[in-house]
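cron nightly-structures :: item 1 of 1
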Amino acid sequence: MAHGTGALPQFIPSPSINSFHIGPLDVHFYALGYIIGITLAILITRRRWRALGGDPDVVNDIALWVVPAGIIGGRIYFDITTPGDIPHVWYGLFAVWTGGLGIWGGVALAAVVGAWRLRRLGITVGPFANAIAPALLVAQAVGRIGNYFNKELFGGPTTLPWGLEIPYQYRLAGGIPAQDLHFSTFQPTFLYELIWDLALAAFLVWLGHHARIKPWGLFALYVAGYSAFRIFEEALRVDSSEHFLGLRLNMFVSVALTIAGLVWFVIVQRRPERPYTVLTPGAPEAAGGVAASPDEASPAEAIPDEASSAEASPAEASPAEASSAEASSAEASPAEAPAGETGQESAAAEHDGPQAGGQEAGEPADGVTAGASGRAAEVAAADDAGVTGNRSED
């Protein structure tokens, strides 16, 4: 297209390179985009998982399993659905650096592996799925930048000012219809998806803060929302794809997953709430035996943890309970009271106790008073000996 003097470009130009070298290493922008996207997804999920009361280091553990699974699953899906785009070399099936990762295949296998790992750790899967859903969309958005450098994932011809310029050799390699080869600018569907992914991620975060979404709910909306956009995107794309009944294969997948995601969300939201676990059973011991506070526990576990903590720690009991414990400790261990005047008073009080029962009807008050004085002296002596010293540390 022609350019006026000093005017803005009337299309988005294609980059002249798709990789760069660091010594002998050839770094592809497509791979770099996914590396950055995965890193951002891990950081976002760590933050969201910590907010739920979980251990953020669990996210790192899960990432070691789901990232390779996602790459493998994505490549398998790509090889099955677009066999014509596999490079014609012996390693073509595995050449992910040239492009070709099917999102649905990657998410499916990563979800299976991640669920298996979480269950091995004793953690409920649903809350973690909600935590990771917006992060997946951010990773996908950043990964779409790699499609720009690979000059792929574009739609039909357009004259819009944001049309993407595709060089002729890439039009041929992209497998677009012959009648479209003479056009030079095409719909940048990768850019549309990038914008949608970020908008949907922001919406899921907002919804999670303003509505009561149950475990698996946000993940179900992620599946439905992303797949719904793909219906629109697949209607625009003209690059190579397997077709069925005159439509792109991914169109059928998009429709099926949109419906499944919406039904899944409704079922999840109607299901009765159940207790769930966000901390591994050995987490307190791993932290040096310090029990997690209620703020660090899941909502379902916070109340039981508080109750058990109160039972297990007399130092945290109410003042009345603490006084009772002090008194009983002092009565059980009179030998710990310091010798001297206080000890003599205590012994006298114990000696006077039996006499109180033998006094006449008009004298029991003195015996009771003497007994009370003796017990008070014992408590005071126990305090001096440090028996109740724990209360000063609360």
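cron nightly-structures :: done
The longest strand covers residues 19-22.
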